[in-house]
Structures are given as C-alpha cells and as structure tokens.
Amino acid sequence: MLDRKKAVQALRTARWVRDHDAQTIFKVLDGLSDHTRAVGGAVRDTLLGRYSIRTDLDLATELSPDEVIERAKDAGLSYYPTGIKHGTVTVRCGQTNVEVTTLREDVVTDGRHAKVAFGKDWIADARRRDFTINALYSSMNGVLFDPLDALTDLLEQRVVFIGDPDQRIAEDYLRVYRFFRFTAGYAGEKCDPESLAACARARDKLSQLSAERVGSEMMKILSLQKVAATLAQMVKVGILHISVKALRALAAYEDLSSSPVAVARLAILFCDHNPAELQKAWRLSKATMTEATELCAAADMAVQSNLNEVAYRHLRLGPVAICVGAAMAGWEEGRYREAIETFRAIDVPRFPITGNDLIESGFAQGPALGKALRRIERDWVKSGFEMDKNRLLHRLQVYLSMPL
C-alpha cells in the first residue's frame, strides 16, 4: 500500500495548486470558500504521483452553469458551454482550459443517458459517480475532501463501484468498459470480484451502447501499459471475443515493449477479426485503421526476416512492427533484440532509377513498365540495396521482354 501521508501531502504541492491560471479560475468560482473543488483524475493522479501536463483538470462546483458563465464573463475569462445540458462549462484562463461541472444528482437514467438535477450537496454528487476513486475532491489549496473514504481504495489499488454495482451499471452501461479500464490503470489488473460479477450480468445490455462510445473506451484500454490480463477477463465474462492465440500475442507484446501503444494492439487483434468489422463495431477512425493495417503488413515482413523491406517501406513504424511481429510469432526476447539492432543499422538509400533514366533508356510508359519496375524494386531491396543503376536497368529490360 502506498503511503497515505505522502499522498495527501502531494496535493499541497500539486502543479495545478501552484499554477497561476488554474488558481485564477478557482478564485473566480469562489474556490477560497470551497464552493468549487478539483475532482476526478487530477486529484486521483496527484495522490498517486502520476499527475502530468496531459492530465485534465476538472472542477466541481456549487455554482449553477449560468453563475459559472456570469462569473467567467465578469472576470474577462473565456468560456464555452461544452456540456451545458449536463451542467458543464469549459473556462479558459491563459493557456489553461478547465471543465467546470455543477454538482448533480441523477433523476432519470436509461443505461445510456441521464437526466440530472443540479444541487449543492457534495456527498450526493460523490454518491452518483461510478467508482469510489472518482469521488475524490480537493480544495484549490490542495486540501483533500474524501466523503466516501475513497483514498483507502486508491492506495490499496481497488476499483469498486459506489454502492450497488448493478445499479451503477444500469445507470450507464458504458461503466462496464470503464470498470475494466480503471482496473487496468489503477488496480494492477486485479478485478474486484463483486464488480466483475455485475459486469458479467450486464453483458447482454451492452449492445445498447453506441459504437463510438464503446470504441473510445476500448482504445483507451488498449493505450494503457498493461492490459492483456484485463482483456482476458473481459473474454472470460463474455464481453469481448478474442482467441487464445491473440491473447498470448498481446501478453508477449507487453513483455517485449517498454512503451506499448494502442494501434499495435489493434494490429494484433486484426489476426482475429476482419478489420472492417472491427472498424464498424468500434467506429475507428480512418487514420487509426490505416496505421494498424500498415503495421500488420510491416509485422509480416519482419516475421519473414525482410527487414530491409520494412526499413524501405515502413521506416517510421519499423520498431513497433518488429515488436508486433515478434509477439505474434512467439520470438524469444534475444531474437527480437537482434532484429531491432539489425533494423536500426540499416541505411536506406534512394532508389537508383529515376524517371529521367527511364526516358533516356527509351522505355515506353505503360502498365507493363510499372509492373516491371515494382519487380526490380523488390530485387533491389532483397539485395540489401546493393544493385546499381546499370544492373537494375538491365534486369528491367529482361523483365519487359518476358511474356505477360
């Protein structure tokens, strides 16, 4: 268990406690009287010593959304009603953007959306949240407010629902995916048994969720440092369908990579799923699909020991592709490290033949020439980039003379 005293003290010196712009927003929203507090990720990650410039600073407030807007306007701060229906206003001071959400209680929920009522009750606001570790608040000066004793769960690496797990999940079925994400990120992939059982009971309801929301959560899961055991649990309770082979490759990838990335894990999943079907199920972006597909192609080249081709065609993705290929092929770490060293030593020159060379040599443009050029390019790569221009032009002539 982490040191409780050190965790609480960390709040006092948090970056956002010392940041002028963040403190200005707090003051404008009456943070000095604790009518506005930091909540969620910024507090949680600061307590764990994980806070970074990428961590969002979110505030909870007793002020109504209209009051937040009025105060921001009077102070000359920029404001945007980004989620006004649910009580959220984004306030900007300098380079700092902060989401400010009025304290809420759920009035009606249907598993996808909630109708909320605004209020001033901090404990009621805490109890409506999903997990205890998301109900941690801090004053603008770094004083912890912990109405549900969530710090104990955080330091003991427990992710548990607040109150009845089935009720919390029924309020928004996306919380099933969030449970696995937070378990992977904050509980060392050890699922709370009661919470896991509730997630299993809700699996038939998950089809109500939009593909965009599911895909967003899944990509966040795939972005974490360690997720293979978590994905295996999701498979075990029937929430995901991934083969044992792919799960083993995902675990091997984590063992080999010091910085796992989501798109690499997605490329591994492509061996189990039709990429188009996965894109439809998770509404993955075109850019993500393109990169994962390219990784698959490069990983296959690496497995076939075509490292020159990986360097020539996929130089940027090469190191990740080799790691993916090694994981899928079951390479020992020594073989993987050797392949990485070999790849990094490759110096890829420019292809010797230019358009002017073709014109000067009298080659006629057309499909046959394009096909022959691709063949000699492959030959050049396989030779370790050793074939010179004259040899390549000669081989080009040979290929063009062959019957189609």
Description:
The protein has 404 residues and is of the alpha+beta class. The chain folds into 4 domains: 1-156, 2-Layer Sandwich (Beta Polymerase, domain 2), CATH 3.30.460; 158-239, Orthogonal Bundle (cca-adding enzyme, domain 2), CATH 1.10.3090.10; 241-348, Methane Monooxygenase Hydroxylase, Chain G, domain 1, CATH 1.20.58; 355-401. It contains 22 helices and 9 strands. α11 packs across α14, α12 packs antiparallel against α13 and α14 (262-269) crosses α18. The protein is elongated, with a radius of gyration of 27 Å.
The largest sheet is: 7 strands, mixed
Low-confidence stretches: none
Q: What is the CA-based Rg, rounded?
A: 27 Å
CATH first level of the largest domain: which class? Answer: Alpha Beta
Determine the fraction of residues in helical runs and give it as a percent range. 40-55%
CATH level-3 fold name of the largest domain: Beta Polymerase, domain 2
Find the CATH superfamily of the largest domain.
Beta Polymerase, domain 2
Biggest β-sheet: strands ordered side by side in the sheet: 3-4-5-2-1-8-9
Question: What is the number of independent domains?
Answer: 4
The total of helices stands at 22
The CATH level-2 architecture of the largest domain is identified as 2-Layer Sandwich
Write down the overall geometry: elongated
Quote the distance from N terminus to C terminus. 71 Å
Mean pLDDT figure: 93
Q: Number of DSSP strands?
A: 9
What's the oligomerization state? single chain
